[in-house]
């Protein structure tokens, strides 16, 4: 029988687990258009959303919706957008005591252009000043030490990642998202992370070769497990995901209908996986939670999730059962 990787004392509903997310807090501008204009052309916008976004905030919102207490650690500017995203994070029920207001920096802005099916472009305005430093993370050491799970985005500078890893409590579930920027950070990540998650490009950076298709992704995941993590979750472009753990793996197809916008799919995947592990689900069923969470968010423009724990659990169990019976 598979052993739970990250079950907390809160299993069974006794308390909400505390999830701390270390990463990007930004403002998202989502524009839905019927066609992407050519050079010199223009196109009318048929839908517009301005909201809290960024990988860290998206993961935090998803975990909060699935029943966790959430604290964010990130950086925004001393500007109006910074105030607005912090206010929305508070309205979403997340703690923002770990979010630094950086004087002179502009809050990150992510422009998500959503066109016809299969057409999506993301334009990022990320001031270097809103990247985390080691001191920013150290200031939240107490929050990190008390967390049941810590989700760390490796797109942040190495010193900040190292500080977050060092501050995690011994029993915390540590989920690392992405590829480290340098070899020293990579070593630290693989020494401490329970789960590593990567997209196709990040997987190539992690293993040093480019997996082609599902079977090579399985091989890459097993290589990563041999370096220390207890679980590896790798995206396979256009095909789905591979999740591997000691003694097994599962290949997850892309669930649901054709996506409207793939923005935020990886963030919801990570949140669904982490929350299932914290709840004591097996590695395999936790993987299906992750796939179901990703499928839910891509049904709408923008990366903001709208998850509900009971609905997600039911969707994951159904997909798992269909795969086991051969009907999927």
Structural overview:
This protein is an alpha/beta fold and 328 residues long. Helix content is 36%, strand content 25%. The chain contains eleven helices and 13 strands. The strands form two sheets. The protein has a nine-stranded mixed sheet with strand order 5-4-1-8-9-10-11-12-13, sandwiched between helices. Helix 9 packs antiparallel against helix 10 (283-297). The longest helix is centred in the C-terminal third of the chain and has 17 residues, at 309-325. The radius of gyration is 19 Å and the shape is globular. The chain starts with 17 loop residues before the first strand and ends with a helix.
Keywords summarizing the entry:
11 helices; nine-stranded mixed sheet; four-stranded mixed sheet; alpha/beta
Briefly characterize the structure.
The protein is of the alpha/beta class and 328 residues long. It has helices spanning 55-65, 80-91, 134-138, 141-145, 158-167, 183-192, 200-207, 214-225, 265-278, 283-297, 309-325, and strands spanning 18-22, 26-33, 45-53, 69-77, 95-102, 109-114, 120-125, 149-153, 173-177, 195-198, 231-236, 240-245, 248-253.
Write the layout of secondary structure elements.
Elements: E1 18-22, E2 26-33, E3 45-53, H1 55-65, E4 69-77, H2 80-91, E5 95-102, E6 109-114, E7 120-125, H3 134-138, H4 141-145, E8 149-153, H5 158-167, E9 173-177, H6 183-192, E10 195-198, H7 200-207, H8 214-225, E11 231-236, E12 240-245, E13 248-253, H9 265-278, H10 283-297, H11 309-325
Parallel strand pairs: 1-4, 1-8, 2-6, 4-5, 8-9, 9-10, 10-11
Antiparallel strand pairs: 2-3, 6-7, 11-12, 12-13
């Amino acid at each position: 029988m598979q052993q739970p990787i990250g079950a907390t004392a809160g299993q069974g509903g006794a308390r909400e687990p505390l999830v701390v997310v270390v990463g990007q807090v930004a403002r998202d501008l989502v524009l839905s258009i019927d066609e992407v204009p050519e050079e010199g052309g223009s196109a009318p916008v048929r839908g517009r959303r301005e909201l809290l976004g960024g990988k860290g905030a998206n993961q935090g919102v998803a975990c909060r919706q699935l029943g966790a207490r959430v604290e964010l650690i990130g950086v925004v500017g001393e500007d109006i957008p910074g105030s607005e995203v912090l206010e929305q994070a508070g309205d979403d029920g997340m703690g923002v005591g770990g979010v630094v207001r950086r004087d002179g920096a502009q809050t990150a802005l992510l422009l998500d252009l959503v066109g016809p099916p299969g057409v999506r472009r993301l334009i990022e305005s990320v001031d270097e000043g809103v990247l985390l430093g080691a001191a920013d993370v150290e200031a939240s050491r107490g929050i990190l030490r008390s967390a049941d799970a810590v989700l760390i985005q490796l797109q942040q500078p190495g010193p900040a990642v190292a500080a977050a890893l060092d501050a995690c409590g011994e029993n915390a579930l540590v989920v690392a998202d992405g590829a480290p920027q340098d070899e020293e950070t990579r070593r630290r990540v693989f020494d401490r992370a329970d789960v590593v998650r990567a997209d196709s490009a990040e997987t190539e950076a992690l293993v040093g070769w480019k997996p082609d298709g599902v079977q090579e992704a399985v091989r890459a995941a097993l290589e990563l497990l041999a370096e220390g993590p207890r679980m590896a979750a790798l995206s396979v472009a256009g095909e789905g995901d591979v999740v591997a753990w000691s003694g097994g793996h599962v290949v997850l197809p892309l669930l649901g209908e054709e996506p409207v916008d793939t923005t935020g799919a990886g963030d919801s995947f990570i949140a669904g996986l982490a929350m299932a592990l914290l709840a004591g689900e097996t590695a395999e069923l936790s993987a299906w939670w992750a796939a179901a969470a990703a499928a839910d968010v891509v049904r709408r423009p923008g990366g903001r999730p709208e998850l509900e724990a009971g609905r997600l659990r039911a969707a994951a169990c159904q997909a798992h059962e269909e795969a086991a019976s051969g009907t999927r």
